[in-house]
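ARCHIVE RECORD
Type: protein–small molecule complex
Small molecule: zinc ion
Source of inputs: curated submission
Record status: active
Notes field left blank by submitter.
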Amino acid sequence: MNTVEDLHVHTRISKDSKEDPEKYIVKAIERGIEYLGFSDHIDLDPKDKDFGFYRYEDARQSYIELKEKYNNGLSLFFATEVTYQNNIEKSIQNNLQGRPYDYIIGSIHRLEGYTISSPRGIQFFNGKDETTAYSIYFEEVDRMINTGFFDIVGHFDVLKRYGNSIYGTFNANRFEAIIVPLMKKIVAKNLVIEINSSGFRHKLSEQYPSNDILRMYRDCGGREITIGSDAHNASQFGVYMEETLKNALSIFDFNIVVFAQRKKIKLSRLSELLSKNKVGR
Ligand SMILES: [Zn+2]
Ligand SMILES: [Zn+2]
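STRUCTURE (tokenized, with ligand):
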């Protein structure tokens, strides 16, 4: 199933991807995806093995060339997904200063020196019960939201990617007292939650964030989402979009938005997207 946008894809500018950005563009045009954003990783913790890989000038140059080549096929966006860590906040701020990103996704990938979004970081869970592990995670999400550096909160409950195999399927309702205040803050600060289909690809049988979290977002007044597949190669692009978007629509008919030069633009509602697909667009 097609979506109007995919604002979360990785290319060879990211350490964990080797993909040629043009491949995403070709697929997007084939599928009628009108808005495509490149969100390569910025990792600024000197202790992280991905540290220092991102090259801003290369990212920018590649984007400019592609934008010239595909000047009327679709809208391309220059973005980044920053690994937020409280202990390197100043360095993140300095790094983003003056760079003309269309939008910036803030994501937690590392806690206590472990890369929790990778099998190599699984030791983070050692000696912690579920409440402790998720509380540490959501406290870091809170600090990330407070910075004001970001437009989009990436994969809001990503700790479940490996947490599920240790504690069983993540049940957000158990953490409602922590999550609801985060949702209120996200809405008050005009941030947007990303609906990220890669949860299905990670064999979790749901997207990030879960339907329960989307419900909390809705109940706190959250009306806007962005959509991303978090593809690291073109074969992962747009995968599991149908399941993801239907889940989101089952909670609320959210407005799909995009950011251009950090300004939010409303595109359409989820229901419009799903009805377009029904008529075989
Ligand atoms: Zn991420
Ligand atoms: Zn990503």
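CURATOR ANNOTATION: Residues 81, 107, 109, 117, 154-155 surround zinc ion (ligand 1) (CB under 6 Å).
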